[in-house]
Amino acid sequence: MIIDAHYHLEVRMETLDELLAQMTQHGIDRVALIPTLVDPIHLSKIAGIAGEMMPKMLMSKWRRMGLLLYNSTVTKDGKFSALGKMHSIYDSPDNESVSQVLHAHPERFYGWIFVNPRVSEPIKEVERWAGKPGWIGVKTHPFWHRYSINLLDDVAAYCVEKDWVLLMHLGSDLERGDYRYLPERHSKLKIIYAHAGLPFYREVWEYGRRMNNVYIDLSNPYYVDDQVRVNAIKTMGFEKCVHGTDGPYADARQGRMLNYILRLPLSDIEKERILGSNFINLIS
């Protein structure tokens, strides 16, 4: 089974029919949908080059410059910036949009409930959807939504109670990027750090290899290039890595992202675990 564990429902960039066609073409069994978080993003060639440079800088002696580039993508007033071009970030992503897809195609999709504790009570939002089929966990973005990870304590406890997974995109500072905080306060919490633990990468891998409850996804071809992908799997172990695309952003097409895994020097069993079984085990 092949599962894309990280995909944004953004029909202004890719319609649902187009996504379903891609899934059929490339043998993708299921996709875990996230409500759209931002206005449609179309990166310029220069912005794309900068995006490709960022992980290389973050994993080199130029890490400080990489962090400056990473942090510059979110403005003080809460917008996504791609070398000056601004895109509005949604404080309250629309979980209803994903719910409608889950109802229409229950055999093809899972859903992540998106919460933002800065603007509303996250437990109320989770409980609104928790009893309905298809939802498998909670998505959080302390970086773009600009809040301290400790505001997710109640959400983490809820996920433990329901045996759900928490998916998180980390910020870079102590408050928004403390990847140790929730796993150590909630030892039974299953947490996936998006984009191979961006922006910390190796720190998250070294930490995650020692923690039974910490995983990463390999989504977004800018954030997770060949070097990151290979080193992440080598350090954390294939058992701790799950496949994702981050589509339809960053030209993360299903075939392209699938090929990145298929061409790795891994056994068929290891590839099968990354492409689907690891995620199934997490949500089962």
Structure summarized in a few sentences:
This protein has 284 residues and is α/β, with parallel strands linked by helices. The protein has one domain (3-38, 91-283): Metal-dependent hydrolases (TIM Barrel), CATH 3.20.20.140. It has helices spanning 16-26, 45-58, 63-71, 95-104, 122-130, 142-145, 153-162, 181-185, 202-208, 226-236, 254-262, 268-283; strands at 3-9, 30-35, 79-82, 85-88, 109-114, 135-140, 165-168, 190-193, 214-217, 241-242.
Assigned CATH architecture = Alpha-Beta Barrel
Global mean pLDDT: 96
**CATH fold naming:** TIM Barrel
Gross geometry: globular
**Number of distinct beta strands:** 10
Distance between the termini: 14 Å
Low-confidence runs of at least 5 consecutive residues: none
Tally of individual domains: 1
Side by side, the strands of the main sheet go 1-2-5-6-7-8-9-10
- Helical stretch tally: 12
The major beta sheet can be summarized as: 8 strands, parallel
Strand content: 15-25%
- Based on helices, strands and strand pairing, what is the structural class? alpha/beta
What order do the helices and strands follow? EHEHHEEHEHEHHEHEHEHEHH
Rg from Cα: 17 Å
Going by CATH, what is the homologous superfamily?
Metal-dependent hydrolases
- Classify the helix fraction into a percent range: 40-55%
Annotation keywords:
single chain, 284 residues, alpha/beta, TIM Barrel, 12 helices, 10 strands
